[in-house]
Write a structure and sequence with these properties.
The complex is a heterodimer. By secondary structure, chain A is mainly alpha-helical. In chain A, about 75% of the residues lie in helices and about 0% in strands. Chain B is globular and about 50 Å long. The longest helix of chain B is centred in the N-terminal third of the chain and has 21 residues. In chain B, strands 3-9-8-5-6 form a 5-stranded mixed beta sheet, with no helix packed on it. By secondary structure, chain B is α+β, with helices and mostly antiparallel strands. Classes of the chains: A mainly alpha, B alpha+beta.
């Protein structure tokens, strides 16, 4: 039971974290009515996960040998792009705090772009969703080996992840608004950097990026397959033996997206003309 | 924004497909079986410097995920299915792998020499 608990908790943790953050974000900017986009994204992510699990189980042939890997790699990079966008957008609102978040949100709502927040939820759930579905499915079809204890553990793992997501949501409500934006920006930055280097690792594994020797080896300190290593890998992209492309990607993303998330207001945005700082004047166009 | 995301997805897919097309043909295939949540054989010897294909057959009634952290490979092998996993040319060394869904029993290693 303990083993299956750890597996599903590890798989579902990232999705729970992202859902907790985007729900909390909508709550904090007074857009509760837009929860539905996140809920819809999450539910569709779950549906897509089940569909992918079924497809993998019943399809066959060459499509199956490479297809799921390509989808997995694409989902990772799309997730990175969406999280980056969300972090950037959140920053625009954080900058506008002295002014009028609510008016800005109205503008965003008017332009109907909050549904993109739902996409963050979708990719977050879908990324590890198919794996989790297949794992639980396997447990249930193989109760003679795992026993119902294994199934219970697996379900409890997902439930615990959901509770963690809920805790993040509740915790987000306790923080002051600037601190909330700060903390979640850092979280998103680290998760996305980890995802980005995981994506590069996947491309290395598939042979699309030339393999390189590991730059260092910290497996004596923390192994990838240990429980803590697994969680750290999900949260921050930790690898005991990272290669140069992964490290460069990780650091490059941290610096690039970090600048995007945390640079002080540009002179342009500080002009009395508030229109210049409007979210829709930037990435949203 | 949506358009840019879509464009980015297509660019990634195009790059990936091109890379697939130009890859060398027909590396050596090495069979490996999963039964009772164990790999057989558990030790695979390969020539260093030559890419190869693991042909993984899952004889169990539950899916298994072939995973090697070192090789950056994660691949679900559904119950009763055979999947091909391409592995890049390896430097001499030992590369452990596990069945992630049954990590306690499903363990093995690839030895490149």
């Amino acid at each position: 039971m303990g083993a299956t608990f750890v597996v599903t908790l590890r798989e579902a943790f990232e999705a729970a974290l992202l859902l907790g953050i985007v729900y909390a974000y909508l709550e904090r900017v007074g857009a509760r009515t837009e929860y539905r986009w996140v809920t819809l994204g999450g539910v569709l992510g779950l549906v897509a996960s089940v569909a992918a699990g079924v497809a993998v189980s019943f399809l066959s042939g060459p499509l199956l040998d490479l297809g799921p890997d390509l989808v997995a790699a694409a989902v990772i990079f799309v997730a990175v792009a969406l999280i980056t966008w969300h972090g950037w957008w959140m920053r625009q609102h954080a900058r506008a705090l002295k002014g009028d978040v609510y008016r800005r949100l109205d503008e965003a709502r008017a332009t109907q772009r909050l549904w993109i927040v739902g996409l963050v939820a979708f990719t977050g759930v879908f990324r590890e969703g198919a794996e989790t579905v297949l794992f639980l499915w396997g447990l249930m079809s193989q109760t003679t080996i795992g026993g119902w204890g294994g199934v219970t553990g697996g379900v409890l793992g997902v439930a615990t992840a959901a509770v963690l997501g809920w805790a993040i949501f509740r915790g987000g409500r306790q923080l002051s608004l600037p601190r909330f934006f700060g903390v979640t920006s850092v979280l998103l930055l680290v998760v996305a950097a980890g995802l980005f280097s995981t994506g590069i690792g996947k491309l290395i594994g598939l042979g699309f990026i030339p393999a390189a020797d590991p730059l260092w080896d910290t497996s004596w300190l923390l192994r990838d397959d240990s429980v803590v290593g697994g969680f750290l890998s999900g949260l921050t992209g930790y690898r005991a033996r990272p290669t140069a492309p992964e490290v460069i990607g990780y650091v490059g993303y941290l610096v690039g997206a970090g600048l995007l998330f945390f640079t002080p207001r540009t002179p342009r945005a500080e002009t009395p003309d508030r229109e210049a700082a409007r979210p829709s004047a930037g990435v949203l166009s | 924004m949506t358009r840019r995301v879509t464009a980015a997805i297509f660019m990634v897919l195009a790059a990936v497909m091109t890379a697939t097309a130009v890859r060398a043909a027909e590396p050596k295939e090495i069979p490996i079986t999963i039964e009772n949540n164990r790999f057989s054989p558990e030790e695979i010897k390969v020539k260093a410097g030559e890419p190869f294909v693991l042909v993984v057959t899952n004889k169990d009634k539950a899916p298994e995920e072939f995973e090697s952290k070192d090789l950056r490979i994660e691949k679900v092998v559904p119950a009763g299915k055979t999947m091909k996993i391409r592995v890049r040319a390896l430097k001499p060394g030992t590369y452990p792998f596990v069945g992630e869904y049954h990590e306690k029993t499903a363990k093995g290693r690839i030895i490149a020499e």
